[in-house]
Design brief:
The chain is mostly helical. It has helices at residues 6-17, 28-38, 45-55, 59-68.
Length: 78
């Protein structure tokens, strides 16, 4: 199963704490950056699903953001 390292998981928790209760979706961009860094430099569907579960949002919300911004790689990069 996919899981952040303990260090990254602590960083995710710190990022989520920056936002008001119920507004954890605001942490999506920085958490996606961490996920891309942690899981091989790109975001595949299981990684985006994992991020969605961490933030308690729907996976489609993560897919929409990841596919909109060019700073996120949806395929392996050479």
């Amino acid at each position: 199963m996919l899981k952040f390292s303990d260090e990254k998981l602590a960083k995710v928790a710190e990022i989520i704490q920056r936002y008001p209760q119920g507004k954890q979706k605001s942490a999506l961009l920085p958490v996606l950056h961490l996920a891309q860094e942690e899981f091989g430099g790109w975001l595949d569907v299981p990684v985006m699903d994992y991020v969605a579960s961490l933030l308690s949002i729907k996976p489609i919300e993560v897919y929409e953001v990841a596919s909109f911004y060019t700073m996120y790689n949806l395929k392996p990069v050479g």
